[in-house]
Amino acid sequence: MKVLKRLLLFLILACLLGGAYYIVFETDWLKVRTINYNPNDALDIYELQRYSGIHYGDSMFTLDLAHSEATLMTHPYIRTAKITRTFPAEIDVEIVYREHFLSIQYSDIILSLDNTLQVLKVMDEVEEGYTVVGMPFNAFSTGKVIEVDAFYVLENIVSLVDLLKQTDLDVDNIITYEDNNIYINIQSLKVNFGDGEHIESRFNKFINIYQSLTTEDIRTGIIDVSSDGLPVYRPFGE
Fold first, then answer.
1. What is the spatial distance between Cα 14 and Cα 22, in angstroms, rounded to a whole number?
2. Could you tell me which residue ranges the POTRA domain spans (predicted)?
């Protein structure tokens, strides 16, 4: 009798295990049928599957979500990604995207950078917004931070652009890098920020002298805030 009970118990367990195996691996009930994510022009569902390694029809049990999040964040436009699964067959992906912040152009190469100076893409023409010209770069790869000798200056340019966006100044979109100096143009006024160190202080000095000049209807010349000393205004030709 005990032998029969054990045999019966074994058969029941075998059936349960076999049924579970069939449900998990042979049917679509516990396989990915739905992938939800916040879409973006830079990422379609096919790229999402390719970068994450999660595809329709994959077993819900065999997914390595941490690995999928890490590989998804190698996409140039993805800053962070969080993946969750909801049984029986749903995957949810929450993505924080990188955004174009400024362009950098050297020779005939134009790159789109985000505010951490990661390269988003190579462009045929500059996008709307600010463009840095005259700064050579050593190497670049989409999805990685651009390599330039004067990297700290480029970081200072990012801070400068942040400050400019907080104003209503009619600033030309071209930011010029020349001899380790940062230049912007406001109509016929040229402003030299030097290497951009202590940029907030230099920017405030620029604003003060610019407002003084405009009250006197002076709209041409050079405003020099390239040092941490007093700002200097010089008419063109002096």
1. 12
2. 30-100
Q: Provide the residue range defining the domain that includes 47.
A: 14-97
21, two tokens: 């195996």
pTM: 0.85
111 and 172 together in one domain: yes
Give the residue from 198, 216, 217, 133 showing the smallest Cα distance to 225. Answer: 198
Strands, sheet with 78-86, edge to edge from the N-terminal-most edge strand: 34-37, 90-97, 78-86
**DSSP states of 57-106:** T-BSSS--HHHHHHHHTTSTTEEEEEEEEETTTEEEEEEEE----EEEEE
What mean pLDDT is predicted for residues 49-63? 95
What percentage of the chain reaches a pLDDT higher than 90? 82
Q: How far is CA 96 from the centre of its chain?
A: 9
For residue 233, the one-letter residue type is Y
| 27 — pLDDT class (breaks 50, 70, 90) | low
pLDDT, tens digit, for every residue of 123-180?
999 888 999 999 999 999 999 999 999 999 999 999 999 999 999 999 999 999 999 9
What is the Cα–Cα distance from 235 to 238, expressed in whole angstroms? 6
Amino acid identity of 212?
S
- Angle, helices 65-72/45-52, rounded to nearest 10 degrees: 120
Instruction: List the CATH number of the domain containing 118.
Output: 3.40.50.11690
The answer to whether the CB of 222 falls within 8 A of the CB of 238 is: no
Does an H or E element contain 222, and which?
strand 220-224
